[in-house]
Amino acid sequence: MSRGKTSCKSLKICCAVSAILFLIIAVVIVVLLFTLFKPKQPKVTAQPVTIKGFNSIVWPLISLNVTLGIAVTVDNPNYGSFKFKDSTAYINYRGTIVGQASIAADTIPARGKHNMSTFADVFVDELITSGDFRTDFLSGVVNFTSTTTLHGKVSVLKLIKAKATSYSTCDISVNVVTITSDSVCTSKVKF
Ligand SMILES: *[C@@H]1O[C@H](CO)[C@@H](O)[C@H](O)[C@H]1NC(C)=O
Ligand SMILES: *[C@@H]1O[C@H](CO)[C@@H](O)[C@H](O)[C@H]1NC(C)=O
Ligand SMILES: *[C@@H]1O[C@H](CO)[C@@H](O)[C@H](O)[C@H]1NC(C)=O
């Protein structure tokens, strides 16, 4: 009789303890989903542009054929991967696209960092601009801008997904005398 009472009491205690444990686990999971596992914005940094190949001709027409090295570093702070599609970087000279380069699709693992790099062959001659190119070239500095857009997706635990698009632009000054380049780059991520 008293034995039965005890087991009933311990069953109640057991139920109460399980319920509390269950509640604690549920709270921990919810907190994790809203903090640790919440998709965070990947950090994208455009690296300075480098010159990989250079060729210029001044007769009969001035032309410039230069290969630019473009690189962006993508830092994924998520406890999940950041995957982005194939994309293209464009090089612009005074409003005209004068070169492009493709960037292969990639997946950056959880809390990983990747450098994405590509080369763009840029060709400019006097025919594509109305006198500006000759002036720029003879001044010794030709300016370009590059734009790189990455369309990607962050996925955490294969459950939580968020789209992230990164935009990087660089103002590039190519010195055609010293064959060096200066660049100022900015990046932003739309999440
Ligand atoms: C530019 O130079 C590269 C290598 O130096 C060459 O393969 C390419 O054909 C050149 N492009 C033009 C349009 O001259
Ligand atoms: C990416 O490139 C930058 C600059 O070139 C370098 O400092 C860094 O160590 C590289 N990071 C990785 C993960 O390769
Ligand atoms: C080229 O860029 C440099 C640095 O941003 C700037 O000082 C210069 O005025 C620019 N030249 C032209 C022709 O726009």
UniProtKB/TrEMBL annotation:
It is a single-pass membrane protein. Gene3D superfamilies: 2.60.40.1820. Residues 72-162 form the Late embryogenesis abundant protein LEA-2 subgroup domain. It comes from the Eukaryota. GO terms for biological process: defense response to other organism. PANTHER family: LATE EMBRYOGENESIS ABUNDANT (LEA) HYDROXYPROLINE-RICH GLYCOPROTEIN FAMILY (PTHR31234), LATE EMBRYOGENESIS ABUNDANT PROTEIN, LEA_2 SUBGROUP (PTHR31234:SF65). This is Late embryogenesis abundant protein, LEA_2 subgroup. It comes from Dillenia turbinata.
